[in-house]
Write a structure and sequence with these properties.
The protein is of the alpha/beta class and 225 residues long. It has a single domain (5-222), classed as Spore Coat Polysaccharide Biosynthesis Protein SpsA, Chain A (Alpha-Beta Complex). It is built from seven helices and ten strands. The longest helix has 21 residues, at 22-42. It is globular.
């Protein structure tokens, strides 16, 4: 499995991957440029995968393959969906790393029970044996009877109980996975606007690829000084 972009760094590597139509690739190319510049600024590794997707599943599942491949070379890996960009490059990834846990992930709907509604579009994961077992179980969840949705559903199920519940740190979504509002989000009554929606100075903005104007929205966010 060979990355399309592979910038060597120390201790931490940010990983992205994308495939799809011309519009999605144009957006993703822009996001990878922004995020790659951030990683180079701080000396982090940065990888982008364009091949190696499991064609029998939605492309989102393949983040597990790409993260596991990168964990061979780094003690910590941060996955970032291709519809998300760093909007505050002065914040360092070391702010979020916590060696007491195998994973750090942000949570949607902060006011509902903490083990529900995590968002697996951006997360940090540590290179340790428990992580391999965890990803094996998420991957196998694809064939569970009655299974619906993407890999995120399997992650939510696993971290809701031990042995993984105490190994995963759940943080406020705005820590590193802030939402950018759009017409789909405005219809969601469960959104906590204070703890989820992007504000100036937040580390990462996550746009949601359903909207047709992600690229222009990214550029507009970066222009907010």
């Amino acid at each position: 499995m060979k990355p399309f972009i592979d910038i060597i760094g120390k201790n931490i590597c940010m990983v992205m991957a994308y495939t799809g139509n011309a519009q999605f690739i144009k957006m993703s190319n822009f996001a990878s440029k922004v995020n790659g510049d951030y990683c180079q600024k701080h000396g982090y590794g940065f990888r982008v995968y364009r091949e190696g997707f499991d064609n029998e599943r939605h492309p989102s599942w393949s983040k597990i393959l790409f993260v596991r491949d990168t964990l061979k070379d780094y003690p910590w890996v941060m996955w970032v969906d291709s519809d998300a960009i760093v909007t505050n490059p002065d914040i360092q990834l070391t702010r979020f790393i916590d060696d007491r846990y195998m994973m750090v992930v942000g949570k949607q709907n902060w006011n509902v029970p903490v083990w529900n509604k995590i968002n697996f579009g951006i997360f940090l994961v540590k290179n340790e044996p428990d992580v391999g077992d965890f990803f094996d179980k998420v991957w196998d969840d694809f064939s569970r009877p009655g299974r619906e949705g993407w890999e995120q559903d399997g992650v939510r199920l696993l971290i809701s109980s031990e042995p993984y519940k105490s190994r995963v740190k759940v943080v406020c979504r705005r820590d590193f996975n802030s939402l950018i509002p759009h017409e789909f989000l405005r219809l969601d009554k469960g959104i906590n606007w204070e703890t989820e929606v992007w504000q100036k100075g937040d580390f990462i903005a996550h746009y949601g690829c359903k909207r047709p104007d992600v690229l222009s929205a990214m550029k507009e966010t970066l222009s907010c000084k």
